Amino acid sequence: MTEFKPKIIGFLCNWCSYAGADLAGVSRYQYPPDIRIIRVMCSARIDPMIIFTLFKEGADGILVGGCHLGDCHYISGNYHTEKRAYVIEKLIEKTGMEPERFRLEWISASEGERFSKVVGEFTETIRGLGPSKVKEDPELETKIGAAVGTTLSFRIRALLGHEIQMAEGGNVYGEKVAEEELQKIVDQAVEVEFRRNHILEIASSKPSSAKELSQVVGIPPDEVVNHIATLRQKNLLGIDHIDGMTPFYVALLAGGD
Amino acid sequence: MSTDVMVIGGGIAGIQASLDIADKGGHVILVEKTPSIGGRMAQLDKTFPTNDCSICILAPKMADCYSHPNIDVMTYSEVIGVEGDAGNFNVNVLKKARYVDETMCTGCEECVVKCPVKLPNEFDQGLGERKAIYMPFAQAVPRVVTIDKENCIWFIKEKCGACKILCKREAIDYDQKDEEVNINVGSIIVAIGYDLWDPTPASEYGYGKYPNVFTGMEYERMINASGPTGGEMQRRSDGKRPHKLAFIQCVGSRNPQLGHAYCCSVCCMFSTKEAMLAREHHEDIDSAIFYKDLRAFGKGFWEYVERAKKDYGVRYINSDATVQENPKNNNPIVVYDVAGRPEKEEFDMVVLATTLIPRSDAVKVAEMIGIPLTQFGFFESKDRILGPVDTKRDGVFLAGYCREPMDIPESVAEGSAAAARAVETVLEKGVSV
Amino acid sequence: MQEGEVETGQETVTTATFEPNIVAFCCNWCSYAGADLAGVSRMQYPHGIKIIRVMCSGRIEPSFVLDAIESGADGVLVTGCHIGDCHYVSGNEKAEKRTKMITELLDILGVGSDRFRLEWISASEAAKFAQTMNEFSEHITQLGPNPLKFVEPEPPDEGAGSSEIIKELIQDTGAFDCVECGKCTSVCSVANNDPEFAPRLIVVKALEGIGAELAREKDIWSCTSCGECSAMCPYKVDYAEFIRGLRVESAMLGTVPICSQGGLLHSMMRIMANSDFEQNRLEWVDEELQIADTGDVFYFTGCQPQLDAIFQNRELNLTDIGRSAVKIMNKAGVVPVVSNNEKCCGHDLNWIGDEANVELLMNHNLDLIRKSGAKTVVYTCAECYRTFNIDYQAMAGDLEFRMVHMTEYLNELIDAGKLKFKEGTDLKVTYHEPCRLSRHCGIYDAPRDALAKINGIDLIEMERIRDKAACCGVSAWLNCDGTAKKLQIERMIEAKRTGADAVLTNCPKCYIHLDCSIRDEIPVEREEVEIPLKDFTVVVAEALED
Amino acid sequence: MEPEEQPPAASEEPTEEVPETPAQPEEKVPEAQPGTEEQPPETPTETEDQPPETPATLDSDEVRIGAFICHCGTNIGGFVDVPAVVEYAKTLPNVVYATDNLYSCAEDGLASIRDAIKEHKLNRVIVASCTPRTHAPLFQSVCEEAGLNKYLFEFANIREQCSWVHMKEKEEATQKAKDLVRSAISKAALLVPQEEMRVDVVPRSLVIGGGVAGLSAALSVARQGFDVHLVEKEAELGGFVRNLNSLSLAVKSAAETIKPLIDDAMSHENITVHLNSQVEQVNGFIGNFDTTIVTDGSSKEVKVGTIIVATGALEYIPEGFYGYGMYDNVVTLTEFEILAKNHKLPKIQNVAFIQCVGSKGQDKSYCSRICCGVSIKNALYIMENYADIVGEEGGGRVEVDVSVPEISSRRRRRRRITSAEGPGAPGGAPSGGPEITIFNRDVVTYGAEHEIYYNKAREKRIRFVRYSLENLPKVKLEGEKLAVSYFHQTLKTDRKLLADMVVLATPLVAPPDASELSKKLKVPLGQDGFFLEAHMKLRPIDFATDGIFVCGTARGPADITESVAQGLGCASRAAIPMARGFIQAEAILAQVDPTICTGCGTCVENCPYGAIRMTDEGTAEVLAAACKGCGCCGATCPEKAITMMNYTDEQLLAQGRSILEGVP
Prior knowledge:
Chain B is an alpha/beta fold. Chain B has ten helices and 24 strands. In chain B, 25% of the residues lie in helices and 25% in strands. In chain B, the strands form eight sheets. Chain B has a five-stranded parallel beta sheet, with helices on one face. In chain B, strand 1, helix 1 and strand 2 form a beta-alpha-beta unit. By secondary structure, chain C is an alpha/beta fold. In chain C, strands 2-1-3-4 form a four-stranded parallel beta sheet, sandwiched between helices. A four-stranded parallel beta sheet of chain C has the order 9-8-10-11, sandwiched between helices. In chain C, strands 5-6-7 form a three-stranded parallel beta sheet. In chain C, helix 5 (163-173) runs antiparallel to helix 9 and helix 16 (406-415) packs parallel to helix 17 (445-452). Chain D is an alpha/beta fold. Chain D has four domains: 65-188, Rossmann fold (3-Layer(aba) Sandwich), CATH 3.40.50; 202-313 and 510-580, FAD/NAD(P)-binding domain; 316-406 and 430-508, FAD/NAD(P)-binding domain; 590-644, Alpha-Beta Plaits. In chain D, the strands form nine sheets. Chain D has a five-stranded parallel beta sheet with strand order 8-7-6-12-23. A five-stranded parallel beta sheet of chain D has the order 14-21-15-16-17. Chain D has a four-stranded parallel beta sheet with strand order 2-1-3-4, with helices on both faces. In chain D, strand 7, helix 7 (254-267) and strand 8 (271-274) form a beta-alpha-beta unit. The two termini of chain D are 58 Å apart. Classes of the chains: A alpha/beta, B alpha/beta, C alpha/beta, D alpha/beta. Chains in contact: A-B, A-D, B-C, B-D, C-D. At the B-D interface, helix 1, helix 2, helix 8 and helix 10 of B face helix 3, helix 6, helix 7, helix 12 and helix 14 of D.
């Protein structure tokens, strides 16, 4: 077997961590060569969808680098990144993929050495984990597919969009939501949306009954039925055929909220 | 007659003034004495009260300034003569030979690696090393190396020449000569910043005598990730990292006996920041700040101090102090006053907030331009209330610390203010011609 | 007033009816018993003799004798058991040794040693007692009355130390400038060793208007006025002067400080201030030394002869300083005025708050110098130099003659090419800075410059030098205590650590104090402190070309 | 800056030196002239009449990519097999040309790029060399010179992030370089030309607030040749300073000192002063704000390009502190100044100032910066000017030498001698003069100028006593006097003094209407209620929203000198867009697809620059002039209706996927 060369993607914000990576170069801090860097203007630009899409396509590890909190060139971008990373981590947990494959780090423009250390550690971690199992584990692939779907769901996106404002500025009624309560809301939304997207993902590969879905997704049939009802309402799920008394559902390409 | 503006000093005040004028379409000649622009702010690790990474926020401005089509940046250059009047100053600038062709050097530093001469690095307050051919600091602008002629073997013995042999771009030019350039400008902005006072004469603080007594700027370079110790605090005596830090305020300042009766405006916050950063480096660090009056007067400063106390466990002790040493372990012992009685506490590192003093060449610059200095050696405003950035000489303006001790935001605001006045001047003079 | 002091009424004395007042100290076991026996035996002796009983003649301090003289006694008699008979084994032997010092001192001062006598009288020698009394009384009658001008002590001034006066002090010493930074506290040698003393509190209390009590504080006597605090003070609050001012007030309230040597030295100074005796202070002037009565340069010797007498058991040979100074000047072709009529500068009285006597001494000395025609006065003593420079000029206005310390003068002479130094000197020295010269008068460079100009003498500096130099521990013969001892030993350790061959100082007092510190039991190993102590001027003179 | 003397436009300049960072939009535009003459206000126009920069070669749909791989001497070439990378690049889709350069940034390297664009009809260019943060602008301008839109350029960093960090693994480094080149090429294929927006700027400023800061700002803007509308709430100009009796550094009274400023503003032809007026409504964005100024009920529409906020601050009213409102002679600092100014001070000999009343962790959390200086100023005023009403013999008072004498030269004349010379002799302390105590938590006389006054105050025997928050002084009426009892921190005892007057130094606070104005302008307030600048360090007088600036005490406590400097600073900042005449935004912008947008407003909330607004149609719209291109909005748009130009999802995914592909 040839030596495992992990595919690691690093998204770095232009102003701090990309500059930190440059400084590592200028200072000749050596680190393992497996990482490939993609520059974005701000870490807040990184849509969780992109992370899961790349995981689905076989990335072994993804590193996101941003400015330290408070240092964002765009004032507050990295606070959003932090919230998103939380959802990403929650979702990874749900997919069953090793959580270490994703990492968020704050790296300033002066932390060249730290950048090289972070990359070294991260590469080591990924090497330890071995290649991504997405391609050989269809169940994992389905779940990561579900995660992609989750990151695109209106509810999650809207929550992520409003979370900071809700905690700091209050909602339209000026009510502030406590940090913990907000977290609960997010956790719950992630849970529900992931299940629904998992159902959709399974149903998109083959028409499935509620019972089958219940087994694969691992939740009680009555809950599956509720999700099916919601998904059908949103026109995301349709009945493919009915076998006896059992309807078999299939994901619809069109649809939406 | 000229509508150009000359800005003397490439620190944050000078950079801001230059950018403001250039963005309006004015032409700026920015003259900087050292090989890179950036000034003092480039040396800092973080800035209070946000703990922003200093170089992260400064570097884009440095780059903007250098690449701005309306700004001619003259680094390693000094103003040596000023004649004429507002609207028509003739300024002589000495462009010192850096023995490197600025246009050819790519900043790869290949030459630096091979240069055999090791010297203390000024940018790192002498804590790290640099070579005789050197990049002043990693983020320097322009990213061009400079040869320190005084210490270069080629210039001393006509031997070596390693850099010249190595440089594929043939950027090394030992025959480069200092050059005098005469520049006609309509207005001048002086923003030459400050120097750091060497606290060795105030031997009661033990600097230079006890190895583990550091100046604030030395400490700042140490905790900087791109500094000489890679961001780690290291005792000079044994290279170990400290667990107990003492910060002593007003070392040299607010002390007419040590020559500086004024307050530097920034040290209380500077030390607060440093104490907080120490804690961020290591959870177990205990810091104490010895102060005369806690001057946390800027926006969010008092809250910052409260945070340092509450969240970072920084102790504030209202007393000046002197330093002794435990000869057994080279630990500095801080002696201070509690209700009139002396108390002693052993630390393993002491950081001195030393005075930020007028530039050593402020007197020369003042004489050259013909503007007066205050009793402390800062440039004197024409009208200390309504014309802070104006000088007694028409067409010459001031910005930043060289006028009055102030912090970065105030220097930036003054950079802009001086820019406004300079533009007003050249517009007025320009129209009258 | 000291313990064991005698009250003697001043009587109007005329030569015709002179009845000498004599104080006789008698030991309990022999002479007092002898006196009793004389009484029992109804042996007559003059009524002017007042007997003071002490347990042993060894109890008699030299200061008792001077105090008696100062207080108007025409003669002082000390009696004890015969040698070998002492109830306390050898107390009388000690008394005998001390007698030598007393007689020498009385001679130097011009009081005359013949106004003092020591006699051994046993309990059975009633006749000898009476005879001695008669003889001594007769002898004193011959000598005539004590010519000392007795000054009635002023009654305590209850207004002293008032808040108005304290305000003036605050004004004069810049105490209002205190920003309570506490740097003074951190360097105060005394505060760092004495758990009671807090120098800054004294000023803070004054500023708070609790000043009236200040003159009664005992802390004001603990300060060595070394000026380490002021040297450190950002605004140069003059603590030393502040303390001195308070001591003046305290003295006016009648406070008598506890002085070392039982106040002997202060007595001596007061005697000088209030007499015009023909002194005998020039014994040290060897034949090869050339001195004059008038001339351009006056060498103000200070108290070397008296100190040599007082500390004779320690063989300090402080008069070597004077000999060296004159030798140096002679070598340079200068014949200085050295006067037998010179009196103490008054430094120590000044620092215990006795300004009246300082003024008397000043007037005498200034008159003397003016009469000598000197344009330059040279000092080898840091205290004399300070007192002239600061205190005299404060009281008498600017002085018309030039005052130079020997270290400065040496630089002048060397620079003028008037002094040559021999080859072969090889001495590494370190230098203990006297506060009066350095912090008080700002002379830091002169001694160092001078040493640098001398062949073969290398200066190795101690850790605490110049304005941060540590104190010798004692000033104005006050507060010689455990704290002082600690400071002295600290300083000697510091000197020893330099690895120098000797430690030099420029002040006879520093010399005496540092020397004293390591004579007795010390809490550290001897090798940590033992380093030869030398006077600056002496060392320079030794390095001169023959 | 005369028009005749303008240097040639930047885009025409040969770029020989190496720029160091991605270009800011401002850098590449032809410069404008400060509008010295009146210009009519214009409505914002997206200048579509700009000549398109589309190169001639982009007329076909065919993507033709040129790849230039740099050796950077041996910096890359020494560790990466550059020829192999070139050969590899040639095999990649859409690549029609690939070559190596010894130094791509050198003139010959640049020429090779220029020539290849023409020769090979390239419509995308990638350079694989160093970091885009310093070199992208250089290569972009080369593309532009060759007629290629600069947004069709892409960079691969194979030096800082490859050759230099993998110096011991040539093979790996070469592989990585290939991957990075492939990644860049995959993005390049998706690049589309972008137009940079231009929006004209109305050359007129609105200055809100006629205090010292606003006056300084208005005058400087006017002197730089632009119209100014100065709006002042009160009936006269001068602001807070009008209340004041004296100024620390001034020889004249406060009113006289600032009079020239007011006179100049009133008489300047470019300044229109609106007294008794308020800004009612503000709409629009940088360059084109529509504002309504209401004066005594009548409103007036004014269109301006920039806005300067200089609304000042008020003094905190210390209700419930130290007997304020209960005892007659307990006054605030400003009340004291007004009394002094009107010569209505009562007979006072003993005065206590109490600092930090209600500030530093009390009702207000902050230190108000200037109060120590102001208290000292007033204390000195009493010392110097009120001797006649406070002392019995004012004439006998003594001037104290300002310099600090050396201990060695200090010559204290003995009191006995002095008293013989009579009262008033040098060295004798004054008697009967005012006695002033300043109770403080820290004396905050920062800098050189303020500290001089602190030193002077002590020389004048003004007493400073420190107290702590745990042990506040107490003020009680005792007969005719005010008894101030306090705990002395050094002496550790309770003390008391009797004062004729107690002056409370209270913090400056934001005026109540600040929050209303902040909503109108859509700019934030900080926690302390003062206006919040864009960045505490480097953008102290800018708002995050372009075109609006803040100065003086509206921003936070500041002394008069600082307010003037900030006013001038704002004038400089505000003049920039007006002098240029237009705003040109870099085309890395968010774009909303109105057909997808549901108008949920998430993006509006998330944009740190207020660059997104809702249109009348209920969809979001990006204000190109204000957008900075961070992409925060796009990443959270629930409907994914927002595209980040130049960093589209497709482009990022293409880059990511291309990396994952490995060698095809």
